[in-house]
Amino acid sequence: MCAQALSEYYKAIWNGTDIDLDTYIDNENLKQYTHNKITSQYGLFLKNKLTYNQVTGVDIGVEKVEYVEGDKRFFYFKLDAHVKKECG
């Protein structure tokens, strides 16, 4: 799910494609922030003519996983992401 979310996020920023934030984010404030961030970044890339080089995918690797116990249990992932783009 993380890989799909990151891939859709980068495609939305660089390619202007839609992303269904409801699939990935449960918090309304975070959804609004993310939507505004995507819109802002894509607008900036359009303005500077940087959208000709489309994102084709994202390779995700896990560098570190940490399990935290307490009142609630969590896994924290440190991810490596490599954005793949068209050349031309």
What would your notes on this structure say?
It is a single chain. With 88 residues, the chain is α+β, with helices and mostly antiparallel strands. The chain has one domain. The protein contains 2 helices and 2 strands; from the N terminus they run ααββ. The chain has a two-stranded antiparallel sheet with strand order 1-2. β1 and β2 form a beta hairpin. The radius of gyration is 15 Å and the shape is globular.
What brief labels describe this structure?
88 residues; alpha+beta; two-stranded antiparallel ribbon; 2 helices
Number of strands: 2
- What strand order characterises the main sheet? 1-2
| Rg computed from alpha carbons, rounded to a whole number of angstroms | 15 Å
Overall structural domain count: 1
Estimate what percentage of residues fall within beta strands: 25-35%
Main beta sheet: strand number and arrangement?
2 strands, antiparallel
Query: Could you report the average pLDDT, rounded to the nearest whole number?
Result: 92
Spans of 5+ residues with little confidence (pLDDT < 50)? none
Structural class: alpha+beta
Order of helices and strands: HHEE
Which descriptor suits the 3D outline?
Answer: globular
Helical coverage, percent range: 25-40%
End-to-end distance = 30 Å
**Count of helical stretches:** 2
